[in-house]
Amino acid sequence: MSIPRGSLVAVALGSAGHDAPQTDGGGAPAGLDVARPAARHLAFGHGVHYCLGAPLARLEAAVALRTLLARVPELDLAVPVDSLDWIGSGIIRGVRSLPVRYRVG
Description:
This protein has one helix at residues 54-71, and strands at 76-77, 100-101.
């Protein structure tokens, strides 16, 4: 695909990193699939603008999630998924809050 010189281009970061729709209609490009093969994404930038702290951020997230799930294995979402309040920004994708419940012991 080529973009003619002088064309206006809008970048939709919210769409970046999704799998391409499958021609057979299968799969869920926007769904969370932790077994999906690793793919390049734009969360930490790209090329010369790649974040120098990306490896540390990934390590911190891995350690934090591993520790949380090891210490609180009964962690569960406290509300229905469709009731989550999503941030309506075109730049940031996430929920305003994530109510959880857990049992201790």
